[in-house]
Structures are given as C-alpha cells and as structure tokens.
Amino acid sequence: MPPTNRGRIVPSNSGEPKRIRKFRLEIAKQIPEFPNNQDTLALLEEKSLGSLLIDYANWVFRYVPPRPRTVYIEPTITADHRWSLLSVETKAFLEKVRLGADLTPYLSLKVHRQGFTPMAASVGSDVDRWADKDFLLTVMGFHHFHLNPVIEARGHAKRTDDVLFAQVTRDKFSAIGFFDHSVFKPTKEVGGEMQAERKRLWKVFDERVTVGMAPGIVYTSSPIATSGHSLHHIRLAMDYARVVAEIDPKLDDPSFRSELFPSIDPALARALKPSWRMNYLDLGLFDKKSNIFFILRKGPC
C-alpha cells in the first residue's frame, strides 16, 4: 500500500456504521495534504465516503502497484535518440517492471507530499484546480519515471531531467517516449506558446487515442469534471461507495460471509472479522487474523 500519513482521534459519529467510519477515516489519514495541518486533515475527515474516495483515487492513481507486467516498446520511444543514449538505465528499469518490482522510487516526489489541498476546491476564476493533481496523468493516463539507478538515502531515485512516459495497466506497461522536464510546463508559464516537448507528447497521445478511428469521428478522450478530477475516478469512487453501503450491513451475518467468499472453507468464512480496506485502487475486505484480503473491485492498474 502507499505510505500512510499520520493519525489523530476524531469524535465518534453515531449516525455512521462503525466499520465504514473506521474505513473512511483511515483513507483520510493516508492522503498527504498541503498545507499539512490539522485543519486540512479535518476537511478530509468531514467528507462523505464517496467524496473522499474521489480525492483518494486522484492521489493514489499516481502510484504504480507492484505486480509483474508485460512490457511493450512503442515506436515513438525507439525513434528517439535517447533510446540508445539511455539504453542501460532503460533496460534495467524495464526489467524491474517485468519482475513486478516496486517502482515507487522512480516516481515524482510530489506524489508523497501533494495529494489534497483545499485551495484546489476554492471559489474564484484564478483557482488552480490542478494544484493537487497530475495534469498529464489525469488527462492522458501516462505515468512518468526517473530512470537513474542511484537510489538516494530517502529511498528515491536520483532526479533526472529526462523521464520515461508510459501507459500502465494491471498487466501491461507500454513505454511511450522520453521527454525532458519542459513537458510539464503549462502554456501560460511560457508566454502562451506550448513547449516543443509538451507539443510532441500531445501528438503522441492524440495518435494513440485515435488509432483505428475513421476521419471525422467526434470523440472525448479523457472526460474531466469542472473540479479537475477525472470522470473515471468519480465513477469509480461512487461505485466503491455503493458497494460498501450495500455489503456492510450484511457482513456480521455468518451465512452471508459464506456466500460472499465461496472459494474458502465455510467454517473459516463464518469466523472472519472483515474490515474495509483499499490496496492502491483495489477495494476489498481484510481479515487481520487470517491475513486474507478479498478483492471486491479491481482498480485500473
């Protein structure tokens, strides 16, 4: 699981089932907020489960759960001169991907510090909706990785200017291309002119999205809400909240647990004391005594 933040005691709310409340507050503690203070944490803890899961999905999608993946090398990356220039680092990194190693050290450091800020939800024409979001990941679905093999004392790879962009699913890792850090600069920061690297990334994205489409087709590649959140994450959060609300009232019934977990011994199912848990974007029930995590909904990666 992603690293947890810190905890504090919150007064009990009798109107919310105990198991769901515990789950909701655990999620709130995991999301790194900025400013990192009790007021910001309180805002997260006051949210409904569905609303909180939107913020959680927005943040935790920036991680890559460690599991073996098939690596696909796209022509857009092999055509880059950096393919040979960074061949040693790239080969070593992609081998880690194939083996299912933890790729967290190679991610942006912001993922550990900037998961939620009240400023992004403020009212006003000058509000930065993207302050707590990875714009390129949210819009394009591309993660980026620093390939330096040197792991520094704090556990992250030494920062590099050139980064590898990739599209990651549960079982596939498609290496898209190399880009320098100018790709992250919004147009407004460079006098209204889009940087060459950013323009090239958009071209790669558009070509991937429209492959196989007939000319003249109208499409929406990445629907985004006015809050800046991906509509995919909003729908995921609402579905997860619905699953929790429907199943939780039945969890104390031993016969229901036997039906819910048909693959395990009925006697064990009756003895379980499950609690709600998120493992990255997988929603499930965890039994501490048996150390079993039952996945009810699988995340996108």
Walkthrough of the structure:
- By secondary structure, the protein is of the alpha+beta class.
- The protein has a domain at 70-110 and 131-210: RelE-like (YaeB-like fold, 2-Layer Sandwich), CATH 3.30.2310.
- It has 12 helices and 7 strands.
- The strands form 2 sheets. It has a 4-stranded mixed sheet with strand order 1-4-3-2, sandwiched between helices. It has a 3-stranded antiparallel sheet with strand order 5-6-7.
- Strand 5 (275-279) and strand 6 form a beta hairpin.
- Helix 1 runs parallel beside helix 3 and helix 3 (49-60) crosses helix 10.
- The model is unreliable at 5-12 (pLDDT under 50).
Walk me through the topology.
Layout: H1 18-30, H2 38-45, H3 49-60, E1 70-73, H4 75-78, H5 82-85, H6 87-99, H7 110-113, H8 135-140, E2 142-146, E3 163-168, E4 172-179, H9 196-210, H10 231-247, H11 254-260, H12 266-271, E5 275-279, E6 282-287, E7 292-297
Parallel strand pairs: 1-4
Antiparallel strand pairs: 2-3, 3-4, 5-6, 6-7
Helix pairs in contact: 1-3, 3-10
